[in-house]
Design goal:
TIM Barrel; about 30% strand; 6-stranded antiparallel β-sheet; globular; alpha+beta; 3 domains; 9 helices
Length: about 600
């Protein structure tokens, strides 16, 4: 689904703000038709926002099941004769949307946009009652998976095999927008270049077309100059003297699509894109044919009070910290991020490893967290129902982000079990699906520390090897000499087995900001700094290493447990974004990189 926008033929109204809010403690809201009347509640909740840290009651914070949002919305008077649409940028993890008494759309999957055409249910100039029920339950079938058990306090208890807290609610913006009867429904853009000549292959999908339309395309550069033009719903456009999209210099063109009928403009939509290529060549990762090394972080959408809500100001602040460290890239661990984040990465030349929400498909973690390992790939565990939702997660992510120049790799899962029987049968069709949907980008999955080269059975299905390793933290705790040897030995074994580019997608140590130690003891700022330096020494010795993403950019909230003190403390910044000593280690190492990127930017501006 195209991101809604204002254009000469479309109007967009933002629906963020305060909503009446009710927690469905008994799970009776649907049967009692709460959508059919004004919500009986005194509570209010802001959108976007996770509701969990906003209220004082534990029954709300840790509620498992449905919550309800409601608000009156007025349709602009001038929208007569237009299609009227609703769009939710996400509802975590399941949403039912009602317009007055009618269910207009249901969607499962907490990090993807969805919406409905509500034209037949509303009238221009009048109001309607918008009610949204949101469910945060994770089951073995959902992506990510989880389990609900009866709690001793009589309430349901949610558990899951990932550590970040299950923040819930409407985390991203809501929109009302108009579209014409005949409209652009989708656009796919694939770019290439040879020397100074850029090419743009495009395919359009129209909705409500009569067959008499004429489609005109115009490519505009960053200064609004027309640099290419064409007609038709598919074809190739040539950009002479092309400016490439590069890491650190996110040059964007715009493809203006105009649908005309009988001499009249019926729809107009603009899609941003960049001209660049990504490829794997032997053990190198290439952007525009040049070797690229990833520096940056695994991140989380996580902030104090608002939880997983998107906030533009906090986003810009985070990106400024990223730039300060010299990071050129990040991974959307462990779910797709808000579209505003991706837009920013496109504009500013950040390289993104774009991940689905398939985290925790691994019952080995049961062995770590107590309870003993149970099979991962089994009926009632990761099974056909999980696979169906996983397929949907891949399809929706690629559909949403396919035209983004920042996206360099699709990561289809984080730390799934890759050694058990069943792993290959589960992942082979998913890898094939990702390739079919996007033949232009390398694909990968993120490998867990249990699945060493001798055990893992799925790596050859992917183009890059992404590894999360914790030598010196979960293993050889506090012994960085032993950790250094173990890390290097494993990376060399991978290099021998795999031969493809390798990215360390996680390495990090929990660190209490302000805790210091002469002897570099675990949990101290000194240890985190030494830990990172040790990894960097090893990376610099192993040729196939093409990337380093520290875990994590910032401390983040988790579920409770003996492994975490008010959250995961592996942040290089605290949760309120103050630097730990490690931040300076990274800045020192990566600023070389930052300086060379700056030089490149200055050169490209001069050219
Ligand atoms: C991992 C996970 C990440 C955790 C991290 C940790 O391997 O991918 O989600 O937060 O380890 O800190 O344990």
């Amino acid at each position: 689904m195209l991101k809604p926008q204002n254009s000469p033929t479309r109007e967009l109204v933002n629906l963020d703000g305060l909503y009446a809010f009710r927690v469905d403690h008994e799970g009776s809201g649907h049967a009692e038709k709460w959508f059919a009347e004004r919500l009986s509640t005194e509570l209010e909740m802001g959108v976007p926002g996770s509701y969990n840290d906003v209220f004082t009651e534990p029954e709300i914070r840790d509620h498992v099941g449905w919550v309800w949002y409601q608000r009156e919305i007025r349709i602009p008077r001038g929208w007569n004769g237009q299609r009227v649409n609703l769009r939710l940028d996400s509802a975590t993890h399941e949403g039912n949307v009602y317009v007055n008494d009618t269910l207009v759309v249901s969607h499962v999957g907490g990090y993807m946009p969805f919406g409905a055409d509500i034209t037949d249910l509303v009238t221009a100039g009048e109001t309607f009652r918008l009610t949204i029920a949101v469910n945060n339950t994770l089951t073995q079938a959902t992506i990510p998976p989880g389990k609900v058990e009866a709690g001793a306090n009589g309430r349901d208890k949610q558990t899951y095999l990932h550590d970040f807290y299950n923040y819930s609610g409407l985390h991203r913006s809501l929109w009302l927008y108009s579209t014409p009867e005949t409209t652009l429904d989708d656009v796919t853009i694939v770019t290439d270049f040879a020397g100074t000549a850029g090419t743009v292959d495009y395919t359009l999908e129209l909705a409500g077309a009569t067959g008499t339309e004429e489609v005109r395309l115009t490519v505009l550069d960053a200064d609004d100059n027309e640099v290419a033009a064409g007609t038709g719903t598919s074809g190739r456009l040539d950009i002479p003297n092309v400016t490439l999209w590069k890491p650190g210099a996110g040059y964007l063109y715009r493809l203006l699509v105009e649908i005309h009928r009988a001499g009249e403009l019926v729809d107009s939509y603009t899609e941003n894109f960049g001209v660049r290529t990504v490829a794997v060549d032997g053990n190198r990762f290439l952007i525009n044919g040049e070797p690229f090394k990833f520096t940056g972080f695994g991140m989380h959408e996580d902030h104090i009070t608002i939880g997983k809500a998107h906030n533009n100001t906090l986003m810009v602040a985070d990106f400024n910290l990223l730039a300060w460290t010299g990071a050129n890239s990040f991974r959307t661990s462990h779910y797709p991020y808000a579209e505003e984040v991706m837009d920013y990465a496109d504009r500013h030349g950040l390289v993104v490893i774009n991940e689905t929400a398939a985290v925790g498909l691994n019952n080995m973690f049961g062995a770590v967290f107590g309870g003993g390992p149970t099979p991962t790939y089994a009926e009632g565990a990761v099974d056909a129902a999980t696979a169906a939702n996983h397929r949907q997660a891949i399809e929706e992510l690629i559909r949403r982000d396919k035209n983004r120049p920042s996206v360099a790799i699709w990561s289809i899962a984080n730390e799934p079990n890759a050694q058990e029987e069943g792993a290959r049968a589960y992942f082979e069709p998913l890898a094939t699906l990702a390739r079919e949907l996007d033949p232009t980008r390398p694909i990968g999955y993120v490998n867990v520390m249990f699945d060493t080269p001798d055990k893992s059975t799925i790596d050859d299905l992917f183009d890059v090897l992404m590894l999360n390793r914790y030598y010196g933290w979960y293993l050889q705790t506090g012994d960085l000499e032993a950790a250094e040897q173990a890390l290097e030995a494993e990376l060399r074994a991978w290099e021998a087995k795999h031969g493809k580019p390798m990215i360390m997608t996680e390495y990090g140590a929990d660190t209490m900001a302000g805790n210091h130690s002469m002897v570099s003891a675990p949990w101290s700022e000194e240890y985190q700094a030494d830990f990172l330096r040790m990894y960097h020494r090893v990376f610099d010795r192993v040729e196939s290493m093409v990337g380093e993403h520290v875990w994590n950019f910032a401390d983040f909230q988790t579920s409770v447990g003996i492994m975490r003190v008010d959250g995961n403390k592996k942040g290089v910044f605290t949760r309120d974004r103050k630097p730990k000593a490690a931040a300076f280690v990274l800045r020192e190492r990566w600023s070389q990189n930052a300086e060379s990127l700056e030089r490149e930017l200055v050169q490209s501006l001069r050219a």
